[in-house]
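From the thread on structure requests for the teaching lab: each student submitted one protein with a one-line request. Submission from student K.M.:

"Model Methionine aminopeptidase from Buchnera aphidicola subsp. Schlechtendalia chinensis, tokens only."
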Amino acid sequence: MTIPIKKKNEIEKMRIAGKLVAEVLEMIEQYVVPGISTGELDFICHNYITKIQKAKPACLGYNGFPKSVCISANNIVCHGIPNNNHILKNGDIVNIDIAIIKNKYYGDASRMFFVGKPTKLGKLLCETTQESLYLSLYKIKPGIQINQIGKTIQKYIEEQNFSIVREYCGHGIGSKFHEEPQILHHNYYDSEKIVLQSGMTFTIEPIINAGRPEVHCMNDGWTIKTKDNSLSAQYEHTILINEEGCEILTIQKTEKIPKILKNLY
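Reply posted by the TA:
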């Protein structure tokens, strides 16, 4: 396995792409309200990416995906296809996953949004999922084994009595949408052999279910749902490993975590 180490000029391009992704996630929040359709949200994101940012939505046409962003509500785990007939209602939780190409480099992130007032369970699930991502970010530094990411996430999630979807993982990213390595969100022992190095860039994107971890794919070939119809949540960031820890390339203004984490101690 060859894991790309990014050069300085590549990192600068990835910072730009990551910032654009963050801006879309900040922009769309005001529109996530009861009564809007996921199709309308996709349309707003597409226009912002193409007309304001002068960038490309990476999901559009990727392996045949028909829309510009993925929107996954409630029991949809990931890869939800935006639809004008899917109307969001009060109490829904919804993930919006944004991936952008700018100057031939990619940025990728997602976050959860509350539609109106969330349920207690929905709010707790989203907060727990975000915290599991943050805890893993505080572990990242050169020299650690890659499985420490999943080990950290698994320990925390199981303590909260939620479950981790294992079929989907984070990934290397750069001039390609998906590169090596795969970032598993549970403790996978074979990944102990991979040691993190400064200059690696990848996504971490745990998907956490309120019920059981099993999922199934719908007839459209994309939409993944929980088998038991329980709620599902996901948070994702693109990160760069630096000499002291990591830099979150897709950080948003409202987040309560530093952009640059100094984890050498």
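TA comment: The longest strand covers residues 93-102. Helices lie at 8-28, 38-52, 120-137, 147-159.
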